């Protein structure tokens, strides 16, 4: 049985699990980045989410949106690089559509869709450019069909997380067209995009937080 | 990894503290590791702010001072600074005439400066931005993030800095910066990779007898890998695309900048300069101004870049004007 809505407790659990997973995969993410970027993605995200966890712990945010907004502003001011503004904007847009005590399955889809729109608005990447958009786009599509079929919020998030993971794997054969990996052209083939990989980890944390 | 550091996590902070103390006659340190001119913003003058990941020293803090930048924003190692300190620097540089952001074309830098410009706008500070993209190694097309900003950035900062100093308004300073960017091209080579302190191992793997042509300034791999060759041969590989891209046909006056990536002896930079100058002169191009040294580095990377700026009377006069910064200073 899973609940029909998610509340601020879910958002707080998400922050805890996201921080754990980012810190745990820090070396792996940086290693992916070292292959086709500059090797600091895991380090930067770990620094950012450690700050996020502390900020959320010390806040009295009472809505999902309130927590996500704090995630956004903290990431923007601590991560740097391209990932900081991209994730920051994603969480900021998600926060704007989730400023309610509870969100339902369709609300989860709306939240993820807003996040994707934020990433696209900031980074101007298209599907297939070998970026985090390639994880988020199938995730949002999966969330949409899952919510439309009457699934619970937790099921919607699980569908999104699984699709994001597949999307990240599917970046392996792509030629990077945006971001630092694009300088490598054909040499980026055979490597997984670090931003898509971290996006899949974060969505998995969101799904696990909903199961608790 | 063998490095002269105390702790990987405090490298940037300790380096900035030491730098500011050593140049206390020129700069002060503000919040967020921002380095600004001593004495604060010059009233009525357009402020110049640049920044980017650390590891490229003396860029950018070394170029804060009269005739160049008003403030510099060092990010974490090889990581763009976040919008907050960029805003701190923008405020510190604002003398009421607006602020020019000089941004190297790297995705992270562009995104964070863009966000900071929005924040500055909300505080009624007018910001204009020039995105420097002088690197010819990357094809500028819809299919890449575009050409990177590399050593030519120093020349944009120097020349736009003097334009601001002589009282040009924001749009005029921006126009000068854009003109320099339009007339400057660079290409670099790495003989070795560099090691980011917290990563603990080289940013990329390069065999003993291999070099990477077309590197950017973050240790990121470039255009292609080839076997090690002579200095003259490598210099040709760097200079030819630059000359071709600028469309030099003879008769031009240029500034030739040979920049070290951090681990290259001065003597080797002179060897590169010697050949590049000969080659330019052989094409009928006059090398009117020269700069040879470590200005935009990649930590301890061995390598160099060759930059050519096409000069006219205005740019030459602005380049010659006095400058007083930690890393570049001359009088008339």
TrEMBL record, chain B:
Gene Ontology terms for molecular function: glycerone kinase activity; phosphoenolpyruvate-glycerone phosphotransferase activity
EC class name: transferase
The keyword rRNA processing is annotated on this UniProt entry: no
Chemical reaction(s) catalysed: dihydroxyacetone + phosphoenolpyruvate = dihydroxyacetone phosphate + pyruvate
This protein's UniProt keywords: Glycerol metabolism, Kinase, Transferase
A Gene Ontology biological process term: glycerol catabolic process
PANTHER family attached to this UniProt entry: TRIOKINASE/FMN CYCLASE, TRIOKINASE_FMN CYCLASE
Name of this protein: phosphoenolpyruvate--glycerone phosphotransferase
Organism: Miniimonas arenae
Gene: dhaK
């Amino acid at each position: 049985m899973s609940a029909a809505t998610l509340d601020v407790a879910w958002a707080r659990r998400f922050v805890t699990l996201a921080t754990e997973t980012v810190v745990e995969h820090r070396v792996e993410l940086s290693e992916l980045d070292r292959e086709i970027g500059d090797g600091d993605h895991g380090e930067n995200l770990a620094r950012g989410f450690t700050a996020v966890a502390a900020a959320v712990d010390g806040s009295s945010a009472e809505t999902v949106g309130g927590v996500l907004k704090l995630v956004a502003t903290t990431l923007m001011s601590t991560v740097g690089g391209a990932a900081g503004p991209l994730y920051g904007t994603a969480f900021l847009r998600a926060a704007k559509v989730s400023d309610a005590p509870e969100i339902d399955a369709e609300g989860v889809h709306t939240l993820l869709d807003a996040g994707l729109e934020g990433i696209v608005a900031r980074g101007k990447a298209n599907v297939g450019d070998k970026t985090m958009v390639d994880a988020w786009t199938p995730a949002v599509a999966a969330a949409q069909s899952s919510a439309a079929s009457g699934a619970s919020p937790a099921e919607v998030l699980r569908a999104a997380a699984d699709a994001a993971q597949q999307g990240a794997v599917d970046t392996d054969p792509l030629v990077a067209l945006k971001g630092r990996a694009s300088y490598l052209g054909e040499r980026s083939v055979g490597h997984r995009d670090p931003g898509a990989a971290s996006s899949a980890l974060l969505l998995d944390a969101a799904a696990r937080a909903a199961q608790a | 990894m063998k490095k002269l550091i105390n702790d990987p996590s405090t490298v940037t902070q300790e380096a900035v503290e030491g730098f500011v103390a050593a140049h206390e006659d020129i700069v002060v340190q503000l919040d967020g590791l921002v380095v600004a001119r001593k004495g604060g913003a010059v009233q009525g003058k357009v402020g110049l702010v640049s920044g980017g990941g650390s590891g490229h020293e003396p860029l950018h803090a070394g170029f804060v001072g009269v005739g160049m930048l008003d403030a510099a924003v060092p990010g974490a190692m090889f990581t763009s600074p976040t919008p907050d300190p960029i805003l701190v620097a923008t405020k510190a540089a604002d003398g009421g005439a607006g602020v020019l952001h000089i941004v190297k074309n790297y995705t992270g830098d562009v995104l964070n400066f863009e966000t900071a410009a929005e924040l500055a706008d909300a505080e009624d500070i007018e910001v204009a931005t020039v995105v420097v993209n002088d690197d010819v190694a990357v094809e500028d097309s819809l299919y890449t993030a575009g050409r990177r900003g590399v050593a030519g950035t120093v020349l944009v900062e120097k020349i736009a800095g003097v334009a601001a100093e002589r009282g040009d308004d924001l749009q005029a300073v921006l126009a000068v910066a854009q003109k320099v960017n339009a007339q400057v091209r660079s290409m670099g080579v790495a003989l070795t990779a560099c090691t980011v302190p917290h990563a603990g191992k080289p940013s990329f793997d390069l065999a003993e007898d291999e070099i990477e042509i077309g590197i950017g300034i973050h240790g990121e791999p470039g255009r292609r890998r080839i076997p090690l060759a002579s200095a003259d041969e490598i210099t040709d590989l760097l200079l030819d695309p630059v000359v071709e891209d600028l469309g030099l046909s003879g008769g031009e006056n240029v500034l030739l900048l040979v920049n070290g990536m951090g681990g290259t002896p001065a003597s080797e930079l002179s060897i590169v300069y010697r050949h590049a100058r000969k080659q330019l002169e052989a094409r009928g191009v006059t090398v009117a101004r020269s700069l040879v040294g470590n200005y935009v580095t990649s930590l301890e990377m061995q390598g160099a870049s060759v930059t050519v700026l096409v000069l006219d009377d205005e740019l030459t006069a602005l380049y010659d004007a006095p400058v007083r910064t930690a890393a570049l200073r001359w009088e008339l």
